[in-house]
Amino acid sequence: MTRTLLAATVAALALTGPALAGGTGPAAQPPVIIPVAPTPDWGGFYGGVMLEWGQGTVSNSGAPGRGPTSVDIDGINYGIFAGYRVDYGSTVFGVELDLVSSDMSVSGGVGEVDSLIRGTLEYGVDTGNAFLYGTAGVFGATISPSGPFDDYDWGFVGGFGVDYRLSASTFLAAEVLYHRIDDFSGSGADIDATTIGLGIGFEF
User: Fold this and answer.
1) What is the model's pLDDT at position 68?
2) Integer Cα distance of 134 and 137 in angstroms
3) Is-annotated flag, keyword Signal (predicted)?
4) In terms of DSSP bridges, do strands 69-87 and 91-102 run parallel, antiparallel, or are they unpaired?
5) Could you tell me if residue 15 is inside a domain?
């Protein structure tokens, strides 16, 4: 009888052992959440260098009894830019100053553009790694005519551009700008020019 009871007890333990072992297994581990680094916004101070190609015309209505005249203007510009922007999340507003040295020349040896200064406002869309914007403001141009003195005057500038982020503090800039001066320095000549520029910018 004792031998039979012992055998029954061993059999019962053999059957319940796996169930007890399964109930004391390791607890499931919580999922690991990897944080995503936020994309830097476009707000703050910035500056950089630029290279532009420009083309346009210098036109004059002509003296009484003579027809209008027009000559071409083209060449390369290079310079620096600096500004400040406020990023509102989906939109960005900013101001920018450009100081430009120019090698644009007027056909026929009439003169050449020496320098440009531009002050503009920017407003556009923050898409994350890209900033798409329109811009408008004023610019000044120094032009050396065939005479001994430089002439200087102000006009309107406007256009559009895109900045694309290369790193957390560096971006590639591309911009198309239209420039217009009426009656340059009282000469009766009107200046129209379009520039296409590329630059590298750095945020501070």
Assistant:
1) 64
2) 11
3) yes
4) antiparallel
5) no
Residue-wise pLDDT for 94-120, tens only, equals: 999 999 999 999 887 778 899 999 999
In the chain, what are the helix, strand and coil shares in percent, each to the nearest 5?
15, 60, 25
Q: Is 63 helix (H, G, I), strand (E, B) or coil?
A: coil
Q: Could you tell me if residue 161 is inside a domain?
A: yes
Determine how β-strand 170-181 pairs with β-strand 44-60.
unpaired
Distance CA 134, CA 18 (A): 73
pLDDT less than 50: residues of the chain:
1, 5-6, 10, 19-20, 63-65, 148-149
Instruction: Please name the residue that has the structure tokens 């690991």.
Output: 32
Domain that holds residue 165: 45-203
